[in-house]
Amino acid sequence: MRAGAPSQEEIRRQNLGALLRFVHERGQISRAELTSELGLNRSTIGALTADLTEAGLVTEEAPRETGRAGRPSLVVRAMSESIYAYAVSVEVDQIRVARIGLGGVLLDQRSIPRPRGSIAGTIDPITTFIKQMAGEGRCVGAGIAVCGMVRREDGMVHLSPYLGGAVDEPIADSLRERLPELLPQVAVANVADLCALAEHTRGVAAGCDNFIYMYGDVGVGAGIVAGGHRVTGHGGYGGEVGHMVVNPVGRPCGCGSKGCWETEIGEHTLLKLAQSTDIGAQAVLAVVDRASRGDHIAQAAVRQVGDWLGFGVANLVNIFNPELVIFGGTLRDVYLASAAQVRSKLNSIALAATREHVRLRTPALGSDGALIGAAELAFQQLLNDPLA
């Protein structure tokens, strides 16, 4: 065997992972379709599906009546009911916890308003929800989406100014210590990054290898995918586009700088411009609704924020040359209300070559993107090596 060449066992494991990932992402599929899609012969597909079936990861069954002559190809599907992950989304206003089966099937979900104070105060309700949702079968672990900067190496929440000012919060370790028998692994990532992962896996960005997912609430961040890979930077802190300085004489930002992009397009700015005394996602929706019904103050607020939204997006388009920009969180509603301003700024600022084919979209997965992305994070180890 040539030095450095993979062994037969390594090739087999890679093929097992490729097949399981395909079924996980695409849903139930026949052996014949797997043979065509994966470029493997029928006997190899048969052997791989048999191994995954024996491991309890997939099941094979005869398809429903096809009306065609001949023996129908067996259909392979993920064992969603018995292989699952817990998904957690720690947001500015609420905590959501779900149990999601292999294949992206939502099995159970709970939510609660987020307790005020440090992110450490979220551990108790998360623990309670996971215990309540514990099911039969096998848990592969948990994924946690957090509105903050997350260190890739160990999942430490390095900084989360909008979650009680959390600094170096070991949320993954804390949850593992509480539930060692239920959680074999816990992974943590930024909410925008995980929303991008979710949309890439089973949402509007499926099949798109270069896109940006803009996530907004009080702060603003981005999940960036380039060449099919998530761009998270050296330590995992990449995507903090909300702290790109766009207005040097602008408002002070919570990060200590001045004129950051999120001071021009964030939730607080929109609500202040619209003279709203409320806070949160529902308050943003109320402003958008006022604008749609002719309220001049709300319309002016939406237009101004839309202009700045387009300004920043144009710069990101010039830098990353994406095929797609997705607006999620509260930016979804702001974009829908100011699409004309955003596109106008994009057309006037971005280079013709970079803006020519870029599409502006809203998420296909809606508010569930963070949970689905957190589950995808938890499933990665299993999908990479199903028999590990």
Question: Could you characterize what this model shows?
Answer:
By secondary structure, the protein is an alpha/beta fold. Helices cover 41% and strands 22% of the residues. It contains 14 helices and 16 strands. It has a five-stranded mixed sheet with strand order 6-5-4-7-11, sandwiched between helices. A five-stranded mixed sheet has the order 14-13-12-15-16, with helices on both faces. The radius of gyration is 23 Å and the shape is globular.
Q: With helices defined by DSSP (H or I, 4 residues minimum), what is the helix count?
A: 14
Overall mean confidence score, pLDDT: 90
Distance, first to last CA = 24 Å
As a percent range, the share of helical residues equals 40-55%
Strand tally is 16
| Broad shape | globular
Biggest sheet: strand arrangement: 6-5-4-7-11
Low-pLDDT residue intervals, each spanning 5 or more residues: none
**Tell me about the biggest sheet?**
5 strands, mixed
SSE string, helices as H and strands as E: HEHHEEEEEHEEEEHEHEEEHHHHEHHHEH
Structural category is: alpha/beta
| Relative strand content | 15-25%
Radius of gyration: 23 Å
